[in-house]
Amino acid sequence: MADSPVDSINLNNIPATSLSDNEPGHQYHVSYDPHEHRRVRNPTNNMETLVHLLKCSLGTGILAMPQAFARAGLVTGIIATVLVGILVTHCLKILVQSQYGTCVMKQVPLLSYPESASTALLSGPPMFRSLARPAALAVDIFLVVYQLGICCVYIVFIADNIKKICDPYMSSTMPVEIYMVIILGPLVGFNLIPSLKVLAPFSALANLMTFVGLGIIVYFLLTGKKSEEPLDLWGSPATFPLFFGTILFALTAVGVVIAIENNMKTPKAFVKPFGVLNVGMTIIVVLYVAVGSIGYLYCVSDCSDSITLDLPQGPFASTVMGMFAVAIFISYGLQCYVPVEVLWEGYLLPRLGQYSPEKQKYWQYGLRASLCILTFLLAVSIPRLGLFISLFGALCLSALGICFPALMEACLTFQETRGQSRGHIYVKDAFLFIIGLVGLVAGTYTALISIVRSFQPSSP
Fold first, then answer.
1. Model pTM?
2. pLDDT score recorded for residue 15
3. Given this model, what pLDDT does residue 73 score?
4. DSSP sequence for 35-79
5. Which stretches of 301-356 are DSSP H helices?
């Protein structure tokens, strides 16, 4: 199919091979190297990949960090952001390396996240093998729900900021839903771009706007009149799950990370010590800590869902909100790329084999437009930006970004060792899995309760 980023792979009847006795996280010393056999249309270089990584992580999440720090406390927020950043980076690394290991086992250039999860569980202890097919389906569901959730959040963010820019110049203010309708057409048109290579220049522009906008925001936060409310240094256990969900949402771009690594010209450079992943995540974590702490010092407990909404009215503030609205608009296409690929490659294209490539292309355009309209309808239905961020972060990313990578690494370790002791890996992966599971349950429950309460009328 012409718009697919990677050549389609027939996984039927491909013999599996055993991995050598090397720990997950190291290169497998086998004759088959998936990277050498990968054929990618329009591959991205290291700098373009870094640009995509920064763009998908420097979106609405970083602008919600002051509110997240208000829920966690200043000191707790700084420490927890760094720790979660290390945790997320490690889990993304073992996910990419586990995908590499499953490709070696299957002797194929590339496997999707669901296929890798299924293959890893089939190679693990017998108790996990029956979960292989449900795990693949669960990964697909979490990926699609999460990425579409991001798109919903982006629509709300863009409309909120445009509304705040336009309201002072309107004789009568319009509801935010009207602004969502206005941006729907352009969003659909932009989402029809099928190639990450084509999106790279737009991502570079969005990154430039983001960094300039962040610079202006930090200037306002440092020079503006700060709240005189006393600071909360340590936060509350009751609201920490909301912080955890927000920081996971902000830092863990699982679907996009997999997509951009799969589309690299030199994928081996992604997880090197000073490779794209570590460099990008270091920049991201530093920026998150800076914006979160400075923003919290500015507004303390009265932080909006996005710090742009707390800026004083004026031309500079309007410029910042406009720049971020454009940057997030561009990012929408990158985020929607993942559910399109999951649904198209895994579910629709196999059922459209009787159609010509030209007709298949129109079907894919229809899918892209339909997903845009779906996210628009969801955004209009529940425009609760901050709580949506916490919900999708806790529900989907705890599973996709922590639980599944830990489980895959443990199963591949079982396949490699065949009775040899690698207890420290199992202990580490069990610890990661528990963290992800606790974050999923506690964060999802807290976010859902908060969303329900936000719709209830306030007591007089």
1. 0.80
2. 37
3. 92
4. HHH--BSS-B-HHHHHHHHHHHHSSHHHHTHHHHHHHH-HHHHHH
5. 315-343
